[in-house]
Amino acid sequence: MTQISLSRRLRRTPFSEGVEAAGVQAYTVYNHMLLPTVFRSVEEDYRHLKEAVQVWDVACERQVELRGPDASRLMQMLTPRDLRSMLPGQCYYVPIVDETGGMLNDPVAVKLSEDRWWVSIADSDLLYWIKGIANGWRLDVLVDEPDVSPLAVQGPRAEDLMAAVFGEAVRDVRFFRFGHFDFAGRDLVVARSGYSKQGGFEIYVEGGDIGMPLWNALMEAGQSMDVRAGCPNLIERIEGGLLSYGSDMTDDNTPHECGLGRFCDTQIAIGCVGRDALLRVAKEGPVQQIRPIAIDGPAVPICDQWWPVMAGGKRVGRISSAAWSPDFNTNVAIGMVRMTHWDAGTEITVQTPIGAQSARVMETFWI
Amino acid sequence: MTQISLSRRLRRTPFSEGVEAAGVQAYTVYNHMLLPTVFRSVEEDYRHLKEAVQVWDVACERQVELRGPDASRLMQMLTPRDLRSMLPGQCYYVPIVDETGGMLNDPVAVKLSEDRWWVSIADSDLLYWIKGIANGWRLDVLVDEPDVSPLAVQGPRAEDLMAAVFGEAVRDVRFFRFGHFDFAGRDLVVARSGYSKQGGFEIYVEGGDIGMPLWNALMEAGQSMDVRAGCPNLIERIEGGLLSYGSDMTDDNTPHECGLGRFCDTQIAIGCVGRDALLRVAKEGPVQQIRPIAIDGPAVPICDQWWPVMAGGKRVGRISSAAWSPDFNTNVAIGMVRMTHWDAGTEITVQTPIGAQSARVMETFWI
Lengths: 367, 367
Hints:
The structure is a homodimer. The two termini of chain A are 31 Å apart. Chain A is globular. Helix content of chain A is 19%, strand content 33%. Chain A folds into three domains: 16-62 and 147-238, Probable tRNA modification gtpase trme, domain 1 (Gyrase A, domain 2), CATH 3.30.1360; 63-144, Alpha-Beta Plaits; 287-367, Elongation Factor Tu (Ef-tu), domain 3, CATH 2.40.30.110. In chain A, strands 13-14-15-12-4-16 form a six-stranded mixed β-sheet, with helices on both faces. Chain A has a six-stranded antiparallel β-barrel with strand order 17-20-19-18-21-22. A five-stranded antiparallel β-sheet of chain A has the order 6-9-10-5-11, covered by helices on one side. The first copy, chain A, is an alpha+beta fold. The model of chain A has no long low-confidence stretch (mean pLDDT 97). The interface between A and B is large, with 51 and 52 residues. β2 (26-30) of chain A pairs parallel with β1 of chain B.
């Protein structure tokens, strides 16, 4: 494997010290920031995530803050999801689209109040799009990146660990809701959410200075729970069907192609800049869509470029993420497949770096 | 050192195959794309760059294309540099600022014609800002990322190598001008430019399919010139004072703080969205500015976070890039220093990971 060259441009996080002490072995770069990818091994981290509890440095989920009288109007301009009934204290997964309906990001929007939002972004400089829209449409709103760094606590024992640090009340936070909890005299937003299917929380750490004290408090409180430093796990997130912006979808794709049509209320999302472009696709449906795909044969290598999906000698799609799953004893994968071949059970061929492998479209992800 | 985890999200380039065959040892990530940083060693690559010729995969300098009746108007909205006298065939280094005068990117603008521009970007999704501005201001212009991947040929023998592949006429291309040259029946933009002070060219490779044929043609033609695969070199670029967006400056900084005031015609750049914010700083000057700084003592490690610059017990600046220079026998560095301490010859102290080191502000970079 190849090394990563560090520089100030690849930003460290408030938790980097803890990550290094825990023996991080590999990084990726996400929003110009270091994101750990391996501690012991991808397989060992996977097993531990499913059995115990991990603390994840996901500071790279940078926030874009919208603040001011036009904040809610601007938020609705960004997404085809209807936000009218959303309450402060809720988190919504919101596809963000440009004027052609192409996906620019797939963040979680956190509604702090009517005039204040955080957008917890995937890997693209969504700040630039939002600032451009706010400027061009002359909206009365401030848009910037605040000093907020998410720290995730994930795994079956996440709730016990969180209760030990934040008190029993954290158990009452429902999925995709958040509450305010005290740490070191600081009021922090704590949401039940995260980029795994093992359950857990994301703490929006406001102020980098308390990053390591909080990291250490979680590690200390979790000793008896076998807590470890962890990170989003390639195998587990593919099993669970959690998409990765830039890998599984790009600005070429509509939300409907990404299987995110259920988050689009295109008829009523008045004000969304991509609404008109999406009306037809919302009505007729897309011609290609994300699908779970099982690939036969031995463990495939890292999918670092799209692998062609073939049928009858023709290209009918692409694989964008793949990994060997120890629990399901097959290669699990995420692909985009044309409608002629997207029905569950359809047999296809995937051109992997280790040769053409038979594969099939699955009914559901592995959850 | 830590490894890099590959995924489709960290895009490969049309030249990746050549880069791998040449034995790349480390990457950074730039515009969601792999950028090689080391082949033999940073020092060996540095020596070779100054003596021979290298071919660089800088496909990560992605292009944003502006096309349509409002393309030139939009381009002027993005930058405080006066573009009125710019001709097709010219390249301009253009600071890009938001409405507060903060730097969003420092690309090279390539004027193809009155209604068609390429913006060859540094490491941020400038596409999003430009699309947002175009949408919000309802401009009649198409904005997208075309399939154009720059390949740089840098070093004292660059002109000879380019002439061998593109013909003698390439010698007539002046600095920051471009011409159209044929390769494999394809018309390519070739500019005399590049991210080194050793001279050379950047080929805007339109169509990824001819990436490896061109790479191979350059390697073949350059055998007698000791051509090698190379990459932007940390030592050489600091010696030459070439700034790195994200390291040496961020959106917190104005162009004037970055020493780019000479590229700002703030009084006359009517239409630039950041003009009003920059008028005062253009008149009174900034209170901190980029400076070349020599750091005493042994070779410093990689500067992966800002190092405080101190004087009289107070913080007066920061170092953002640093490396040991074999040719100048000192640590060369780029820093941002407050006006109280920015005069050439001022003695300061830099808090490096190997301790506090004495240092001084230099009159010029090492060129």
